[in-house]
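Residues pack. One example:


***
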Amino acid sequence: MKLSLLFISGFIFFGQVSFAQGDPEAEMSAPSAGIEIKSNIIYGKLVDAAAGRPIEAGSVQLYIVQKNKKDSLIRGMLTLANGDFRFEDLPANYDFKLVITAISYKGNEQLIPLKTNSGTENRQRGNKDFFSKDLGNMVLQSEIQQLNEVTVLSTRPALEMGIDRKVFNVEKLITSAGGTAIDVIRTIPSVSVDIDGNVELRNSTPQIFIDGRPTILTLDQIPADNIEKIELITNPSAKFDAASSGGILNIILKKNKRIGLNGIASLGVGLPGIINSNLNLNLRQGKFNFFVSGGYNQSGGVAKGEAQRQNKENGLVKDYFNQYTRNERWRRFSSIRFGADYFIDNRNTIGIVQNFTNGRFTNDESQSQEYLNATGRMEYYGRRLATAKSRFDRNSTRINYKHNFPKAGKELTADITYENGDNNENSDIFNAFFYPNGAEYEPPSSVKNDGRSDNRQITFQTDFVNPQGEESKVEMGIRVYQNKFKSFFNAYSVNSGQLVKLPLSNNYEYTELINAAYFTYTDKKESWGYQFGLRAEHSKFDGVLIDSAYKFGYEYPNKISRIWDALFPGVYLTKQWSEEDEIQVNYSRRIRRPRFWQLNPFIEINDPVNLRQGNPQLRPEFINSFELNYSRNYQNGNFLAAVYFRNNPDDITQYSDTITAEQYQELNNAGVDPNAILNTFINASTTNRYGAEFTLQHKIGENFDVTPTFDFQYSRVKANIGDLDLSNDGFSWEAELVMNYKAIAKNKRSVFHELGFQLSGEYESREVIPQGMRQPEFSIDIALRKDFLKKNKGSLTFAVNDVFNSHRFGVIYDTEQFYQESFTRRNVRSLRITFSYKFGDADFSLLRRGGNRGGGDDDD
């Protein structure tokens, strides 16, 4: 703890010194004719060619131009609200080049020859040693087409691949229109979503971020229409949270900064029971940028599951058990997100984002159970009815600040995020058992559950970037994260109208605290690039069972001799073989901390034959991750290959066994099966994964593109429980394919003209787990999209998810005590029709001043 605090304190001091040494900002005005010039100056103003308005936040870069040498960047800035830019303290006897870029405008370059006549302009004023060059109004041509109310920009591909990450532009994934983040993520190569909505990347659990920060929202609580893009980072650097051992999925929500009023509205319906609506608005005026988005999502459906089990004794089958489940689910949730950015001046921006989300879920489950003897003859059967209702409310607030130093690329950012939420759930469960002739086997049982939880998270983070030259830079930052969680779950047996509290009641609370600091250095020498980084994290988890005062948790490191538990290095080496070919090798050390439900020692009975219990003795696992990546760009697309190895000592692994007689006695009144499986967690000795992944993005002609991905993996698990060997190994593979086609008809008025088609599919082979394997699974989604109305302002999307109703999750357990095959489903096949309408007005202004429609900018 002392070491972590010392590390963070040192970083804060260093950052403050660096900040204090920043160059002072200059006044953005031209020199008066009668004032002596004591600095070499180049200044000017960016102006929109069509409207004559000043252009704010345009990028202006100044280069020194030397014969037979590469142009050298010496200054860079963003233009002010009135379009002004200014560079002072420039070296004499050089020619310069100005490079100008701005969103939605064509770029501009201008040579400024001052080497031979640098003093001419000012010698007339009596200033022989300094020059001042006024470039006047620099006029930029718009690169967009203004179509009445709609602004059409050039489009990005659905997948942008880099050597360290993949970026998925959600607007192009039309199969997810009107859905949730789960529908989006299922289309991402190498990523899968299981029955409980948990995400796996290369068979490991990635960390989910929203706008670069942790979140308490689940994926099905995020509308797909609110997502701009998703970044996938398979082996994060030291800049990122050390708990991102399985990679990072960063969900970036929509928020643009285009001038004027822009927005998109959508409304959709479908089966089963689907209704969705969404509205995104953005208003940019003067120094302010406002945005708001809100929506409502509803879906239903009946999901089915099955389980067939053989219970064994001394290697022989002693009886059989079959279970069939039908679950009718309804989900309704709504959200609103709004915020503002205030551009204080050219170098300072402050923003705030507020989010509210709530949901209401219901589940009506009916379950039939068959109990058969060793010969397969039914001895008795059971009926289980369960009705559950739950609701949640979440809200989050983020305040962020950014300071750009005069030195190009040098910046300081800081933000604080507060999230809180609560959840309430109640359920009624009825169990009855009968002989084959219909007579009562035993008295029925009834259980009533009532639960609620409260969650509070706060995150503070600051990052500092300081370029050391054209190719090198230093990055550093600190992060403080605290998570407080309280949960109250009471279970009662109902006998003759009387409530008797069961030992299943589970009241607990915990506090998780993580302090972190990092440092990275990046540089490039000719065709070689490298990055070295080190992250230090101190983590502490304190949990307590409220009723019994039983405490559990961990602290890493808990003493100075365990300092290695707090250090997470990262090394990245890149070679640019040519303009098209790049290769990278990297290594990082990460941590995976047990989640609270993996530590909680009480038993959950959502399923009477498949129970779950945490293990408070679990330890965090430390992961060593290696990757070799090769990237090639060619005329019609790009190709990315990766070979990886992941070593997981103390791997957190699920372990399953039938409940003991003592446990059954404790749970008898809850209607639990005497042969129920109890799933818990252990630390395996080690798990090693070897893999290779190949992704191709290829364009065929002008209207057709395909993106296939293949991932091959070999896993080996070593684990023991006493004398019981749980070791297992095996080979698995995954394949995903996304295809896009846009029809072009000779008749431009044809309904088929520019009709878009998209198909996405995935297949996962069998995968080994310590006591068995996961069953293969596959699914296919298709969608059609047609843009129409005047200037293509409207679009209609028809999507079918899981065309063959095949997306289910199956598991085989094969142990000395039992053999079981089971499958479950979370969602069912769905059909959606979604209408979207885009609108925008670059001249929109809330406050009109005279005849000016320029959004509040001051013209000179």
